[in-house]
């Protein structure tokens, strides 16, 4: 290795050390407000159920002497994501509508019951 190459390596490492020291001093002085802003921000948090409405839809038909009844339940969920503290608006609301047949609704409630049992076992 020549003297010129070794000088270049030393200079580049010195520059890196100076950059790290500069970053460290700026971080020490400015990290508190930046971290406070990050803590106030919600990243990827789940939406919370704000309201729920439901209705029963019954389709009735008749063909060649047989009657057909097709019942479905429609749920309208209002989901809200909490706004960061200090924000002008309170929350962002998203509406979701879900339609279930009898069997789908039974399956859904069975799964919800299983989730409730798991939550109860963890909190007991």
Task: Give an account of the 3D structure.
- With 124 residues, this protein is of the alpha+beta class.
- The protein folds into two domains: 1-40; 48-123, no CATH class.
- The chain has two helices and three strands.
- A three-stranded antiparallel β-sheet has the order 1-2-3.
- The longest helix has 38 residues, at 3-40.
- It is elongated, with a radius of gyration of 30 Å.
Largest sheet, in brief, is: 3 strands, antiparallel
Total separate domains: 2
Global geometry: elongated
| Tally of separate helices | 2
| Portion in strands | 35-45%
Which strands sit side by side, in order, in the main sheet? 1-2-3
In terms of structural class, how would the helical and strand content be classed?
A: alpha+beta
Determine the N-to-C terminus distance: 69 Å
What letter string, H or E per element, gives the SSE order? HEEEH
**Poorly predicted residue ranges:** none
